[in-house]
Write a structure and sequence with these properties.
By secondary structure, the chain is of the alpha/beta class. It has helices at residues 3-6, 47-54, 76-82, 98-108, 114-124, 140-151, 170-185, 197-203, 221-225, 242-250, and strands spanning 7-18, 21-32, 36-40, 62-67, 70-71, 83-86, 158-162, 189-194, 206-211, 214-219, 231-233, 236-238.
């Protein structure tokens, strides 16, 4: 396998402006197959813009990008067949049951045995007991897990999770984290955008900080922590946290991290 083939996502020199407002200024990063890559940044940094370009919903002004080996500009149909996109709000039908939501998507994608596909995903995401209940009765965490399960119908090799735990309570966030970890055990590549530092710290194999339209640091959690020396307090060595690294790099502008990112649309793309 070549270096290029080992990367599920390749982004180089990505630029994007909305009228006179420049959002991306030459973004570069790669995402290894079967890994979780977190794109972390403050409000308005351009995280959702990157996801929209990679999912062929938006065209970049400059630069190149490929997903699963397909160019997002010249091979958009192949890219869409290789991905699924889940936005900030669960795209589920509240009138239907959990099982009916999954079965419907499987049928729309012309897959064989939609009932079995639904049952397997319900079990995988710990929703079997709620399979026959209307989604309107689900908690926020259950809806999000169902949303992610729907994204996996058809086994897309790459999934984009854009702010997947926005608005969830702490326990629901933990449940969704477990669902995200489960994805990579089946070989799925995950590009996660998040406004939560602890989320990136808990989930990601690699973390890139996007600030003012540029990737200013990209590495493993251990590599990022090495950017700040340990602090010594009463002879006890304190290792830098991701939060320490983040604010040391982006300064006061990063204080807006923790608020919602630029608007994204919840969609399942295949």
């Amino acid at each position: 396998m070549t270096v290029q083939q080992a990367q599920a996502i390749h982004v180089q020199g990505l630029e994007k402006s909305y009228k006179k407002v420049s959002v991306l200024h030459g973004v570069d990063f790669d995402v290894a197959r079967g890994s979780i890559f977190a794109l972390l940044g403050p409000n308005g940094a351009g995280k959702t813009t990157v996801v929209r370009i990679l999912s062929t919903l938006l065209k970049a002004d400059a630069g190149t990008a490929s997903v699963d080996g397909f160019d997002v500009v010249t091979q958009p149909a192949s890219v869409r067949e290789s991905i699924s996109l889940t936005g900030q709000f669960a795209a589920v039908d509240e009138v239907l049951t959990g099982r009916e939501n999954l079965t419907l998507v499987a049928r729309l994608r012309h897959l064989k045995y939609p009932g079995k596909i639904a049952d397997d995903l319900l079990e995988r995401f710990s929703l079997t007991d709620a399979a026959g209940r209307k989604v309107s009765t689900y908690s926020g965490g259950m809806r999000r897990r169902l949303d992610i399960a729907m994204s996996l119908i058809g086994n897309p090799p790459v999934i984009f999770l854009d702010e997947p735990t926005t608005g969830l309570d702490p326990q629901a966030r933990i449940d969704v984290w477990q669902a995200i970890r489960e994805l990579t055990t089946h070989g799925t590549t995950v590009l996660l955008t998040t406004q939560y530092l602890d989320e990136a710290e808990q989930l990601a194999d690699r973390i890139a900080i996007l600030h003012q339209g540029r990737i200013i640091v990209n590495g493993t959690l251990a590599e990022l922590k090495q950017l700040l020396p340990p602090a010594k307090v009463t002879y006890v060595e304190k290792q830098a946290t991701l939060e320490d690294v983040f604010f040391a790099i982006v300064g006061d502008d990063g204080k807006s991290a923790g608020t919602a990112d630029d608007h994204s649309t919840a969609a399942h793309t295949s």
